[in-house]
Structure formats: structure tokens, C-alpha cells
């Protein structure tokens, strides 16, 4: 998992509380002929580099473009207002203020924010935030926020259950049971968020019976060659990481240089992109050992109707990514919610009722069933499915089995966000 997904959200705002009051739902006063306005907040420019967070935005925008070309929602276009928060909490609050108060959007869709500082304000304004990426803990903290992977937490203003979140071991179970892996290396930076995530991965691997090799490199001057040499010497079957995309590519280069061959170099949905050949151009052996796991259907699975629709709608995009699929699915989710409001009109309250109803959602099969429940106690175990793909230069990302049947009953391990 890349470092970008390890950052905890800092909640709060410099904007006055009165700016986000529980006033009447002004969106209800619009006429049926007017467009339905939605907002997309993206850290399009941020300290971690350009385009790191733009996949969900691009997927959602292209879905709405295709929808409008077909006549919109009951004859009404969807008008997309985008805001780049610059990857900062201050910028995020500014985007929330502009979209929620000034533009009066019905909902936020496909949020991908490095620092979702405005999350509490979105929730206070009762604006449904649909299909956002859980880069921090916001989607397990606040009501009216509906992350792309769902949540079982109370969402009462505190993260998870009394400040603790829970995650399963299904990825580690998969590689042990289906691929025969027994030894895993975990590579991290000597940086707090990276080290904390590495500890969680290590706990999960050990819970599944792996022998674990830990490798930590200096954040400022990482010696990936030394880590790769140790991985080779100790004969790891798998390599997991808690480092960024750039570091992953450099680690792979080092592994090729020292001759380290593994069953799988495991990455996550954020790095599940069509640019693998370019990103890992100097590491052909490691590149062809890349595996990715997630909770959405592989964008290469063109035998599936919903994937074909996504591919047709995104032909103009220069690259493909799994985050684009999830942004597309988020836009579809909003559209289904808005269509349920035909009788009373598309309002924040009506869209939120659809989202909060508790019915599992799959976006026509693009997502594993997404659920929102508010369990008073965290589950000890959970049956969890996963989508798995392997990179091959000749074919791109090749799915390994079907995500709806690759399921395991696994323990849920607690951790601090």
C-alpha cells in the first residue's frame, strides 16, 4: 500500500460554524429544468506530486459527461463543480465552503483528498459525500459520508469504535492459500505514518502464520539496494510495502539489480494503473511480479458489461486506472440515488436517505457489495472478498479468479488511524 493512503485526516476548519448551519435544504427550491449540481474535491496538486489523486475525479467526470449525453437524470443535466484543494487542510476547507455554501451542491462525489479537513463541516451541513477514497479516517468517523468501500463503524464523530479502526487479513490469506506463500518482507520508511502501516501489515501477516522480514529505509536517503539484498538473502516469497509509488519503483529496480525473485510484489488499488510499464521501466523482472488487490472489478475485464461501458466512456483519457473505475462507480451511485428522488425532487436529504438505507451497492458489478451499517461493537471476524490481478507485459493487468468468489472468513485487527 502506498504512503499516500496512510495519512490520517486532520479534522477542523478555520471557517465559522455559522457558515455551515442546519438551515433549510435550499436545493429543493430549484426547478426541474435546472441542472443538478454536484461537487468533486481532489488534491490534484499536492506535496506528493501531480496526478496522484486525480483518478477518481476523472472517472466520475467522464461518467457524468456520458450521462449528460444520454439526457441526464430525468431530463436534467448533472453540472460538475470541481475544486483542487492543493493537498492542504486549509485548501480543503476552502473547497468545502465554496462547493457546499456558495455553489449549493446536492452532493460531493468521488472525493480524493490528502487532508480532508473539511469532513466535519460536510457532515454538519448534511451534504452526502458519495464514493470518496478513504485516504484518512473521515469515512469511518462522520455521518453523511459514504466511502467507496463502505463502513460498519458507528460514525458518531469519533474514528471507528472509540478511536480504533479494524481491518481484515484477506490479502495475506489469499497469497498463503492460493499461492503457497510462507515468508513475506515488509518495507517501510523511517517515517511515522509509513512505520505505523508497516506494523499493521506485519501483524496481519503474522496472524496468518507468515514468517515476516521487516526492512526499514531512510525516508530522505533510502538505501533500497540493501533492503533488496536482504530480501534476496532471506528468500522472501512476497514483498509488501508502506512506501510511495516512486519508492516502489526504486525498490523494484534494486530487486532486479540484486537478482531478488519473489512470487509477488504486492501493491494496492492506487498503483493499479496502465502506466506500470513506464513507471517500472528499469525493473522488467519485478514489474512482471506485480500483483494488486482491491475491492473493484479490474478495468481490463472487458467481458463484463459494466467494464465495457466504463472503457467506452473513458476512451479520451490518456491512461487507465482502477481509481478511475471507482470514481465512475461513485458517479453511478449518486445517479441511482438521484433517480430515486423523482417524486419529491433531487435534494440533499433525499439523496442521503437513499445512501443511508443500508442496501448493499455494487454499481452494476463494478464494486464488491458496499455496505453501511452502524454496529455498536466491532466485528471479531468478517467474510471478505477481494479483487486480485497480476501484471503481465503482454496483457496488462490479468484478473486472478472472480472477485465475488474469492472470499475468506478472516479476523479483524484493530489499529489507530
TrEMBL record:
It comes from the Bacteria. Residues 35-392 form the Leucine-binding protein domain. Gene3D superfamilies: 3.40.50.2300. InterPro entries: Leu-bd, Peripla_BP_I. The keyword Signal applies. Keywords: Signal. PANTHER family: BLR6548 PROTEIN. Belongs to the leucine-binding protein family. This is Leucine-binding protein domain-containing protein.
Amino acid at each position: 500500500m502506498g504512503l499516500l493512503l496512510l495519512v490520517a485526516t486532520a479534522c477542523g476548519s478555520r471557517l465559522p460554524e455559522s457558515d455551515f448551519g442546519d438551515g433549510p435544504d435550499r436545493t429543493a427550491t430549484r426547478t426541474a429544468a435546472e441542472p443538478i449540481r454536484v461537487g468533486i474535491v481532489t488534491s490534484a496538486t499536492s506535496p506528493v506530486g501531480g496526478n496522484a489523486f486525480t483518478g477518481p475525479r476523472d472517472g466520475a467526470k467522464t461518467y457524468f459527461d456520458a450521462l449528460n449525453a444520454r439526457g441526464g437524470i430525468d431530463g436534467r443535466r448533472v453540472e460538475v463543480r470541481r475544486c483542487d484543494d492543493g493537498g492542504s487542510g486549509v485548501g480543503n476547507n476552502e473547497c468545502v465552503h465554496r462547493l457546499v455554501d456558495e455553489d449549493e451542491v446536492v452532493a460531493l462525489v468521488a472525493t480524493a483528498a490528502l487532508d480532508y479537513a473539511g469532513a466535519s463541516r460536510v457532515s454538519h451541513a448534511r451534504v452526502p459525500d458519495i464514493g470518496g477514497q478513504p485516504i484518512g479516517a473521515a469515512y469511518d468517523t462522520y455521518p453523511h459520508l459514504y466511502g467507496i468501500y463502505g463502513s460498519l463503524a458507528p460514525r458518531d464523530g469519533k474514528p471507528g469504535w472509540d478511536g480504533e479502526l479494524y481491518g481484515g487479513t484477506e490479502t495475506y490469506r489469499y497469497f498463503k492459500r492460493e499461492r503457497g506463500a510462507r515468508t513475506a518482507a515488509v518495507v517501510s520508511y523511517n517515517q511515522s505514518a509509513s512505520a505505523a502501516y508497516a506494523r499493521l501489515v506485519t501483524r496481519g501477516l503474522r496472524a496468518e502464520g507468515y514468517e515476516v522480514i521487516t526492512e526499514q529505509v531512510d525516508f530522505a536517503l533510502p538505501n533500497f539496494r540493501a533492503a533488496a539484498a536482504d530480501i534476496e538473502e532471506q528468500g522472501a516469497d512476497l514483498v509488501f510495502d508502506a512506501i510511495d509509488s516512486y519508492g516502489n519503483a526504486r525498490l523494484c529496480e534494486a530487486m532486479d539489480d540484486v537478482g531478488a525473485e519473489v512470487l509477488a510484489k504486492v501493491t494496492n488499488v492506487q498503483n493499479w494503473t496502465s502506466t506500470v510499464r513506464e513507471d517500472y521501466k528499469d525493473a522488467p523482472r519485478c514489474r512482471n511480479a506485480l500483483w494488486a488487490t482491491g475491492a473493484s472489478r479490474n478495468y481490463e475485464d472487458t467481458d463484463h458489461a459494466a467494464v465495457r461501458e466504463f472503457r467506452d466512456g473513458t476512451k479520451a483519457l490518456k491512461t487507465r486506472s482502477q481509481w478511475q473505475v471507482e470514481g465512475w462507480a461513485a458517479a453511478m451511485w449518486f445517479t441511482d440515488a438521484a433517480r430515486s428522488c423523482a417524486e419529491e425532487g433531487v435534494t440533499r436529504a433525499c439523496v442521503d436517505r437513499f445512501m443511508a438505507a443500508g442496501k448493499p451497492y455494487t454499481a452494476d458489478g463494478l464494486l464488491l457489495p458496499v455496505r453501511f451499517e452502524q454496529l455498536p461493537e466491532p466485528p471479531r471476524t468478517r467474510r471478505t472478498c477481494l479483487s486480485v490481478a497480476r501484471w503481465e507485459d503482454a496483457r496488462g493487468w490479468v484478473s486472478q479468479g472472480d472477485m465475488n468468489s474469492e472470499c475468506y472468513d478472516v479476523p479483524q485487527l484493530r489499529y489507530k488511524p
